[in-house]
Amino acid sequence: MGRISSNLVHNLGPEHIFKIRKQGKGIFDGYGWADNLASLSQGRGAGATVPDWEIMVGGISGWSFPPNAMNDLEVSWHINHDWAAGTDQYPHIHFCAKDDQVEGVCRWGIEYTLAKREQGVFGDTVTVYLEATIPANNALEHTVIEVADADAISGDLLEVDALVLARVFRDGAHANDTYAGDVFGLFLDLHYQRNKYATLNKAFPYNG
Asked: In 3D, which of 93, 92, 90 has the Cα closest to residue 65?
């Protein structure tokens, strides 16, 4: 199928689709969005800052992050072979309020370091913050918030088989976090642009 105009692609969806088009990777060229998954139910932590594992609904439990405190878990991502090389990746978190409360803002932080496979070194960490308003009486409603473009993980820092190690935390003691109740942290994902083709080789150089 032939290429289509930037204006048409822009009208098809969110601003990220337009970004793909500007990079020369149109949705009809075999590129689209996918998720690199990290379930917080499998997250790890140690010490007093680990959130409590509590019943969420029925027999299903989750990590409960309280207000007025900083609790954290650690997860990791492996950069997949179908990633469209050079494009940015967007961390986002899935969560829900534990019970009904008045409206307030929930503030999350993601601290991460990364290293490429070939002689990569895990360097200084970067921390990005995400804030979402939780409406009143909104218990257990699935909520998702994603970083802004400026806080995306730059594709220039990544390659296939790179690792991203992350710490996710509710920044509940920060003045911007005004939500009075606990929230369940559920999933921490990376939205990434996916190439329909896998890499030619399983190791570096991946397409050489």
From this structure: 93
